[in-house]
Amino acid sequence: MKVNSSAAAALMGRKTRGVLPGFGLTLGYTMVYLSLLVLIPISAVFIRSSSGGWAHFWEVVTAPRVLASLRLSFGASLVAASINVVFGLIVSWVLVRYTFPFKRFIDGMVDLPFALPTAVAGIALTALYAPNGWLGAWLKPLGIEVAFTPLGIVVALTFIGMPFVVRTLQPVLEELDREVEQAAASLGASPLQAFCRVIFPALWPALLTGFALAFARAIGEYGSVIFIAGNMPMRSEIAPLLIVAKLEQYDYAGATAIAVVMLVLSFAIMFGINALQNWAASRHGER
Amino acid sequence: MSIALRGVTKQFGQYAAVENIDLDVPTGALMALLGRSGSGKTTLLRIIGGLETPDQGQVLFDGQDATLWPIGDRKVGFVFQQYALFRHMTVFENVAFGLKVKRRGERPSAPAIRTKVQELLALVQLSWAHDRYPAQLSGGQRQRVALARAMAIDPKVLLLDEPFGALDSQVRHELRRWLRRLHDELHFTSIIVTHDQQEAIEVADTVVLLNQGKIEQVGIPDEIYDLPRSAFVHRFLGQVNELPVLLRDGRAYIGPIDISAAAEVQTGSARNIALIRPHEIEVGQASAGWPATVLAVRVIGPIVRLDLCADDRPIHEPLEAEISRERFEAERFTIGQRVGMRFRRWQVYPAAA
Fold it and tell me: Which residues of B touch A204 (CB under 8 A)?
């Protein structure tokens, strides 16, 4: 019987060796690191939230003020991430496809929301959009109020989420094969058809990732929002602020209860997005 | 459809990609644009296809000025070196694309599209792969899909940009022959860009050799191979040995061989070189011809290649000779053996070219 060498090696239980050793060490390190930084804190949240009992948990979580804040947090994050998908696509398209003066400078500006302390961003946006601010003064006669309303929250969350979409899209756009577009054009596709049928399908996994990152960032955002939101209960109060408020009243069980709900919801959404991406990838047979 | 180029020029910055090109491609021709990378062959193809606009000159389709026609209106099937398939679509959807994007009035019905795509897939022998994605196919199969996709819009012209460049030599050979058969059956005008002289000679009716944005020579494959108009063409179309032509007492010599009788050389002060292909060198007994030493012997299937160091020539510039396997079996040349060379054929060019 003839057995090829790799099959023979597998039969004898021999491992294939990579060039760099150390699988055991790096895996061990990864596990410890993730446990210390992620798993243990998160399980602590779960344990802490159950300390008040199930009835208390339910009572906290279903309080109208909490529900309103959760709705606002997730709703505003969703809107902000969606806005970022549209305009982030345009920004990254311009940055990849065209050359123009100060391109590098503008490219660098995309990272500002990453680098700026969020409180600074919050104060700046508030000053700008307050009824007596530069932009707010113009918007007020039109009946549009931004500062101290949910709209203000969306503005702040859009600001901090923008780089996530742009930076995930850019490398994908750069790698996009121009010849594919030219092929579409030579087959008679209009520019719109070429975009919708050829370019967009290639981009949407990256768009989805950018959306997920911007969304996740927006849900957790605190610093920039609290300045512009005005924090009126039931109207412009985000869930992370409510957690802080509960902590300040030494209501740890209440604070962690809200945290658990946010955690579970976020996780479910991220899981959904991931599943969508896997499905898309497997459809094209490129796994 | 016939294509004509009139004075086509295209510059990229300071660099002239193609310069003042005049070319006629008759209806039903299969023409090869041959040249090194940077010779302008791909730019020329892209100008014909409408992917580039020439700075000067005209592109005529059936005598009509098509220079500024948008690419979608040209009825041109374009095949790219890297296939440029739509990765998120199945093979079927790829081929159907050109039909599905047609305007409502011109678009065939869904069953008509289905029939047409199935016909095309049968033509490229990929019916079994209709629901596969491009990533699941081999390079040769992908290129056949790309060809079927290009033919779906009933192009009057098929433009192929190094279509087989990314494939291994066996597949390349098969696809060339297949393309040639396809062309003979369907009679559309085709232009193929290649850097491979073998490919150009094998597949095309007419070969256009480009160098630095200009046409060096146009001709049928035999003619361009046998009667190269310049040393560049001669060198490009295959292996050559280069030897200086020496002038002594009004007679011309390659080594000790007197070539004055061929009367191709104007005796003057200009330096000339002779180009000789490996199979044009005859190798025989040391007593006759230009004495030489065998440096290496390589048997390559039906032919045998010999490296020969001619007397009076530097050892690091051996000549390459090709003889048939039969002749080799009869003579049994060995390394170090003394032999005599004669030249069956040669061409003389000014040395500067």
Answer: none
Residues A40 and A135 in one domain: no
Question: What are the helix and strand counts (H, E) for chain B?
Answer: 9, 20
Which one of 3.40.50.2300, 3.40.50.300, 3.90.1150.200, 3.40.50.970 gives the CATH number of domain B3-236? 3.40.50.300
CB burial class (10 A; 0-12, 13-18, 19+) of residue B132? Answer: middle
Q: Do the Cβ atoms of A155 and A230 come closer than 8 Å?
A: no
Bridge partners (DSSP) of residue B211 are B214
Q: Which residues contact B28 (CB under 8 A, 6 or more apart)?
A: B187, B188, B189
Note the pLDDT tens digit of each residue in B80-125: 988 999 988 999 999 999 999 988 888 999 999 999 999 999 988 8
Q: Which domain holds residue A209?
A: 53-283
CATH of B241-350, one of 1.10.340.30, 3.30.565.10, 2.40.50.100, 3.40.190.10: 2.40.50.100
Count of residues making up chain B: 353
Least Cα distance to A49 among A206, A251, A194 occurs for A251
> Which value does ipTM take for this structure?
0.81
Q: Which chain A residues touch B if contact means CB-CB below 8 Å?
A: 177, 179-180, 182-190, 193, 197-198, 201-202, 283-286
Name the burial class of residue A93, with classes exposed (0-12), middle (13-18) and buried (19+) by CB atoms within 10 angstroms of its CB. Answer: middle
- CA B177 – CA A256 distance, rounded (Å): 72
Chain A closest CA to B345's CA: distance in Å? 45
Strand partners, B300: B303
